[in-house]
Specification:
Radius of gyration: 16 Å
Number of domains: 2
Largest sheet: 5 strands, mixed
Distance between the termini: 30 Å
Bound molecules: zinc ion
Strand order of the largest sheet: 1-2-3-5-4
Strand content: 15-25%
Number of strands: 5
Structural class: alpha/beta
Helix content: 25-40%
């Protein structure tokens, strides 16, 4: 099944409405109807809403598949295929949906020749949080960074600031550590996917 979602973005100071779309693989959805499947209904709603915050995905089709239950992660992205995977046994957090979509957006930007690291998990987490509306932040930690001490309301703005810091000072500017300092993360957990 394919869904088209209208994504407004800005170009040369003018608002433009673009279109991105997503489809949910049968391996995720199975034969079940959405009405009978709260996990499917939930992931559809979250992917559709979160795509609005990734204008890079305008004109692209994102595929949603099933995460192998043996994988010890919350979600997964095969960014070269624009494929994201989530568990079918449990609901996925907004934070994870934004993280996986960020992998795809970073891949698209990398392919356009932008200076972004396509395989850095901490960078991906920072991009993901930077795009989140505050009311959708539904967790008290950030994957591959740790547990911030500052209130959630400040996370997106701090992550945006860290990305600007990187842009101004370069990829070797220790922007991840700077971000963790601003977020007041004492024990940085750069390898912890949870
Ligand atoms: Zn990731």
């Amino acid at each position: 099944m394919t869904n088209t979602v209208s994504i407004p973005y800005e170009r040369d100071g003018n608002d433009v409405v673009g279109f991105g779309s997503y489809r949910i693989l049968e391996t995720f959805a199975g034969p079940a109807d959405e009405a009978d499947d709260p996990v499917l209904e939930d992931i559809r709603r979250k992917v559709m809403r979160a795509m609005e915050d990734f204008p890079e995905l305008t004109g692209k089709t994102v595929t949603v598949g099933r995460l192998d239950p043996d994988e010890d992660v919350l979600g997964q992205a095969q960014f070269w295929n624009l494929l994201i995977k989530f568990p079918v046994e449990s609901l996925t957090s907004w934070r994870t949906v934004y993280h996986e979509l960020a992998h795809l957006a970073i891949h698209v930007r990398n392919q356009r020749g932008e200076d972004v690291p396509p395989t850095s998990e901490p960078f991906c987490s920072i991009v993901g949080i930077s795009r989140m509306p505050i009311k959708l932040i539904d967790d008290d930690r950030i994957s591959y960074l740790g547990r911030p001490d500052v209130p959630r309301e400040e996370w997106p703005e701090i992550c945006q600031r860290a990305l600007e810091y990187r842009e101004e000072r370069g990829a070797n500017s220790h922007y991840i550590q700077q971000c963790c300092d601003w977020l007041e993360i004492d024990d940085r957990e750069s390898r912890n996917p949870y």
